[in-house]
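User: Hey, quick favor. My workstation is busy. Could you predict this chain's structure for me?
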Amino acid sequence: MVALPSGPEPTHRSDRENLFRATPRLWRALMRVDRAVIALTGRLVITGDVPDDLRGRPLLMAANHIGNLDPLVLIAACRERRISPRFVATGGLFDAPVIGSIMRAGRHVRADRGKASAGEALGKVVNALTEDANPVLVYPEGRLTLEPSMWPERGKTGVARMALAAGTPVIPISQWGAHEAMCYGMVRVESARDLWVLFSSWLRAVVRRPTMRVHFGAPVDLSDLAADRVGDAARARDRIMRAITEGLIPLRVDEPEAPLHHDPTRPVTDKPSPWLSR
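Assistant: No problem, here it is.
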């Protein structure tokens, strides 16, 4: 287990509630709205949890990315577990007129894209982990998976570097079903027609009511790895991605080869997931 900084060790439901209520009021209100939207969309099934002894301390959560609506699904699942996640998001969201205010109010973490800003983004996440009791949630893949069967892609080492630099544990989160709630659509939304494609796919999901599953896995053991040792970031990345994949297998036991739901708008690559035994 990764060595943790000293801090409170919540062990009771009241401790969880106190930590949750320390979240900015606006963000808690938006989480309630989000839960209502997900309840309207379909059925949310949550398994696993974040151990009490990791709450209120620096913590990273790493999830697979399967659809446009899955951030809302993750927020709803976290709220049910009395967790207030802070997302690592691109600078464009923070610069948007309304969304930017929400992101800042929720103490989410800005990470601008590009090699030149990678070190700065890493520093921001490490600082964010130590300055706030709420965990930071990251997508290791860096994008919606384009793997042919929607298994996790190889992923990047960014999350691993964050965890090793901050000395924090990582909770793997596996999810399945959110891809049925909204189509992939297009890379960039540039018109009302593009928005309608996404919104109409969500309306169809409201009628179908897909089951959206989220699993909180056991902490990934990175205690033998170091931030300054060559190759350890890749090793940490591999452990995190394998943990996410292992948690995903039972969520899609009826769809091991390919998703039953077909989305004609989703592009695919020719690179199969490296995390499955084939």
